Amino acid sequence: MTAENVRWGILATGGIAAAFTADLVDLPDADVVAVASRREDTAKAFADRFGIPRAYGDWEALARDEDVDVVYVATPHSTHRAAAGLCLANGRNVLCEKPFTLNVREAEELVALSREHGRFLMEAMWMYCNPLVRRLKALVEDGAVGEVRTVQADFGLAGPFPPSHRLRDPAQGGGALLDLGVYPVSFAQLLLGEPADVTARAVLSDEGVDLQTGALLSWEGGAIASVHCSIVGGTSNTAYVTGSQGRIDIPNGFFYPDRFVLHRDGKDPEEFVADPADGPRNSFRHEAREVMRALRAGETESPVVPLDGTLAVMRTLDAIRDHIGVRYPGEDTTEELTPA
């Protein structure tokens, strides 16, 4: 990859695919050249909406398109393994939406496949790419609050969601944890790494997915993180980092903040505000730029969203599900990642 525009393919045509593509088409060094869906009419409608030249009615046609440098996988997370695996096996680089997969076994298979084929792979954890979150991480690493003692984070939606909704559907990996809880868990692990111990409790739906989950993560150094997610109650969606010499408060929307406040012991509070030049707080352009930077540098993974970190988060999510008793259909079977 050189300085030429990076050619993107979009796999899926739902809301998150549309939001990402809307940001992507505004980047001068990105070209969206193809889109795929399970239905050709859906793909064509999406292509017409965004001025995309090629529309495919099946995933494999996009995966085999050699004019595509990288595919953004935006399918439901229950099909991330199959969709991303198909693209990697056919030589495409991949940016895969969060949660990366249903479980760590699937995640390990995708990572192994990317390394086998020498392809770039990254989870679309846009929070990690947010400039203000990166600034916060740097401050914590520089000792701004001393040794981190506690992290608190929550993400909840008021709902209610009917049983037919994807968030209540076990076949689509429904529940609060994988869709929302991945953010508080990822935030805690961004600052503290993988926990040594995990415990959790949840309220389950009649379908067997979690309506709300609370987890306590702990580290050998003494740090503790309290994380919560819900699809039955709108929470404040805030986060707090407390250290031995201060704390950081992140108001509503910690996963795409527009500000945070640093409280150092014995000093006046310092407010850090997002640069207006970075665009709207809900912009996906930062993760897209990181992917394109890595591709041009010849990297097969991003240091901002490293694969080992993604696997560590998946292990924690698996541990939480073990505690709360949530299993998804077909999890105990192994499917081929490569095309027949």
Notes on the structure:
The protein is α/β, with parallel strands linked by helices. It has 10 helices and 14 strands. It has helices at 15-24, 40-50, 59-63, 80-89, 104-117, 126-129, 131-141, 176-192, 285-296, 307-324, and strands at 6-11, 30-36, 54-56, 70-73, 93-97, 121-124, 148-156, 197-204, 210-218, 224-230, 239-243, 246-250, 259-264, 270-273. The strands form 2 sheets. Strands 8-9-10-7-11-12-13-14 form an 8-stranded mixed sheet, with helices on one face. It has a 6-stranded parallel sheet with strand order 3-2-1-4-5-6, with helices on both faces. Helix 5 (104-117) runs antiparallel to helix 10. The chain is globular.
Q: Could you give the topology of this structure?
A:
Blueprint: E1 6-11, H1 15-24, E2 30-36, H2 40-50, E3 54-56, H3 59-63, E4 70-73, H4 80-89, E5 93-97, H5 104-117, E6 121-124, H6 126-129, H7 131-141, E7 148-156, H8 176-192, E8 197-204, E9 210-218, E10 224-230, E11 239-243, E12 246-250, E13 259-264, E14 270-273, H9 285-296, H10 307-324
Parallel strand pairs: 1-2, 1-4, 2-3, 4-5, 5-6, 7-10
Antiparallel strand pairs: 7-11, 8-9, 9-10, 11-12, 12-13, 13-14
Helix pairs in contact: 4-5, 5-10, 8-10
